[in-house]
Amino acid sequence: MTITDPGTVVHHPQDPGAGVPARVPVLDLTVPVCNEEARLEANLRRLHGHLMESLPHAFRITVADNASTDGTLRIAERLARELPELLVVRFQDRGRGNALRQVWQNSPSPILAYMEAELPADLSALAPLLAPLLSGHSDVAVGTRLSPASHTNLSPQRQIISRSYNALLRTLMGAHVSDAQCAFKAIRADAARKLLPYIKDDRWFFDTELMIDAELCGLRVHEVPVDWTDDPNSSVDVVRTAFADLRGMARLMRDLARGRVPVRELRRELGAVAETGSGIPGRVLRALGWAAVFVVVVLLTSNPLGLLPGALTALVLTGSAARVAAGLRVVLRGKKSAHRPHSIELPQARAQ
Length: 352
Hints:
Layout lengths: L1 E3 L4 E2 L16 E7 L6 H15 L4 E8 L5 H11 L3 E6 L4 H10 L5 E5 L10 H9 L5 E5 L11 H18 L10 E5 H7 L10 H11 L4 E5 L12 H20 L5 H7 L10 H26 L1 H27 L19
Parallel strand pairs: 1-5, 3-4, 3-6, 4-5, 7-9
Antiparallel strand pairs: 1-2, 6-8, 7-8
Helix pairs in contact: 5-8, 5-10, 5-11, 8-10, 10-11
């Protein structure tokens, strides 16, 4: 079936007929795509085959087309006519965050996930990603490319930027995940429906905002090391994306400081054990301090290096210092977390 965001629905022969109850898929795995005609069919067939062999529950793969201008939509529609588990959604506006929000808000599945169309994450990591959510042990599961147990081909530049960015997240916002940007995540639908109305970013920062809000609201987050093969021909501008993420971080800190995200109310609604304080004022003060350090380093390095290299140098140095500071706080205070176990009711296993 193909759905376009203006509301047009085109049914394909595999859609259930009138009066035939449709089986609700336990997993809805979203694959955002944009101009992926060269490899889309092979990757979707590979992903579909892996889920058919490894997942004992009904599933759906939702291809979220972000205004592709090549043959991506045509290929996805043809595959949807062949594979009953495939759904195609067409969006006129680009943005991974926008696509995920729209798909997840309208999905009937209890488990929601997403991964990139290039399938850079080894598919063997899907089972450990989904297992804690299916069992009810955790609310959110995230992949990490930066764990010592992960094997990746990330370039040194990307490693440095990613590690510095995540160090800033841990210091400024109290994040615990090691790789907030990894495009390999899953979340329980009941938790997603509570968080999504407060996640404002429509593009790359969506991942980080989801993780920060989830942790602040007391959700249990499970991290999974992944083997990751980065695409050297990717059109993603890593530096530009990193600065967009920094702007997103500043905006999110303002939203938290002004109470635009009702953290305490969400903690109660989501069943998290109440904590003594949200810690947001302290994070804001730390954020202002590190922002000042960042600006000073940029000013000191921009003249000899140029603005962009100076800003990158500031990001790396500030991120490294923030990581050290975060480690010292953990040693001095220790980590405290309290979660109440959740349960989830699953339909019967898919017949093999």
